[in-house]
Amino acid sequence: MAGWLGRVSWGDAWYNACARLLRTKPVGAMSQDSDDIIEVTEGSGAGLAKVLTTVDLVSLGVGSCVGTGMYVVAGLVAKSMAGPGVILSFIIAAVASILSGVCYAEFGVRVPKTTGSAYTYSYVTVGECVAFFIGWNLILEYLIGTAAGASALSSMFDSLANHSISNYMITHLGTLRGLGKGEDTYPDLLALFIALLVTVIIALGVRNSVGFNNILNVVNLVVWVFMVIAGLFFISASNWEGGRFLPYGWSGVMQGAATCFYAFIGFDIIATTGEEAKNPNTSIPYAITASLVTCLTAYVSVSVILTLMVPYDLIDGSAPLMEMFAVHGFLWGKYTVAVGSIAGLTVSLLGSLFPMPRVIYAMARDGLLFRFLSYVSGFTHTPVAACAVSGGLAALLALLVSLRDLIEMMSIGTLLAYTLVSVCVLLLRYQPDEQTDVHQYRSGDGLQHQDDGAGPTKDDQVLIESSDPDRSSSYHSGGTEGESDDSDFHTGSASLLKRLLGGHYYTLRMRLGIPDASARPTPATGRIVTRCTLLLFLLSFLLWATVIFGVEQGSGAGAVFSGLMATLMAGSMAKLVIVIVRQPESGRSLPYMAPCVPFVPAAAILVNSYLMLKLSPLTWVRFTIWCLIGLLIYGGYGVWHSTLELNAREQQAHASSYQRYDDHLDDSFAADDDQEEKPYQGCLSVSLCKLHFGVSILRGRNNVIG
To answer: Region entry Disordered: which residue ranges (predicted)?
Structure first.
């Protein structure tokens, strides 16, 4: 045993383990192995149709967000967390969503030929372990979203039936205690049936079409306007007076913001429509902003009407918008809102369930989840195994877990996924192009690397696009047809700061030590940014944990000490951001780039981590259990059965066969004239074999051959 341990190279073992976790999926495989299931199963090479306009993308984003958020979350947060301060909670959650949205949009355009999710983007750009963790949290997001949508629809139907459905279930099935925060809940069989019904519809290949989505959103819009106008006749300012606007204080507002973040989940669907949008480079950023602003306007206006019509402590938690009219005896208004509830919750439910099997399918196809989940039916062209498993789990959650707990669980998983996306954007922006850009410019295409690190000029881009039309829409050409480099969405932090600061911009650059625009990142500067970003990520959680549990909830000397510690950590984080600013940024131009990097990603990390820590401890316990299950699956199965691992083993076996061939070669020179050239051929073969073996070993080392 001691001899075996002596032969183990712990340095190599650590290197191999880290390389396994950080290996990336070749982007070349993305063009042939698209996440579009129909294209994979039918073998169509035409790709997806570019038919979506900016209006369509806005409709998709609004339809995915406005549903459970408007018809359930507003009343839920107002009743038990923030009171009328739910208005401020929605505004804070919207700011966090916008910060994450711009990072998500840049992350999406970095990888072409994909209609997948942040899982696919991170697998190509960051590494396998981060990709699995993001994909695992996206599954949680869609899983909880489906269960919450089914529960919300069940609550709406129960409210229309004057709560006879819930009373029947409680009478005949009893209650369950301990699944929520100690409150009694009942087995929601109606929610179970709704989730299974939608699962069957999705598995049969019925798509959530844009036309159907637009119709439901029009119904939603009409009902929203009706609620605002009709509610003006029943409002009472006394509901906000006497300290009733913030009955739970600012702590309740921030806790409500963490839950209200759920209401803005869905803009990531916009960022994954690059192949289907007519002009994705401008449509996606505009659509993300417009959908978030539209949702914020809807949530704030509805929250104002709701809290002015009904005292916050009398709001119905299951169907607040319908019951606010019933309280005043306006039953016709109640049934009108019910129509909008059906439309909004249905499109939200379909929007949550439809992408979930696709993420599971993509991860199973890559070998990170069990392979049987990647089975695609030849009849329906859908991943039926992934649909059955995901739909069954969502139905089980809808049956057993209360709606409030579902919403909080969804918020924490999505907040962490969006935080990791912001971290990845911050890392990739400062890495050397040779390491992060796997789509290197090829000299055969007329574009070569320059020694000074400068990118191609605008004239070069025009020549390239005119000579190669297929490359005109590619992100690494730095622009798209019909767009100029001066577009607001093509500029990074530099041009935006120039417009904001004017003549003080260059003074600020000199004082902060910002490198010249011609400077390019090196491996050393890339490692500095990586360390600073990881420290920033960890310190953000430590900072807010100290503030929340030490300053806000502490007292006396303990609170003072926590305040000093928080101040030191805040100063350290500011220093880390300054160190990142002083590093040279990648010169590669993308069709869309998040503005004010590194400040916007850093702000997104800070806001998201704070909102996560404002969620209940029980939510963190459930989330930790979910993450541990994921780590067990990845450590016990995914890391050994991933496609990259299998390819690495195949390369190792291929290299070993060359080595065995080399051992049996005879390099002796023969004296016969007719065999005069054989020694030369043998030496050449040996040299080629050794060269191939060495290259294979290097490739195997990079791909981590176990």
So the answer is: 443-489
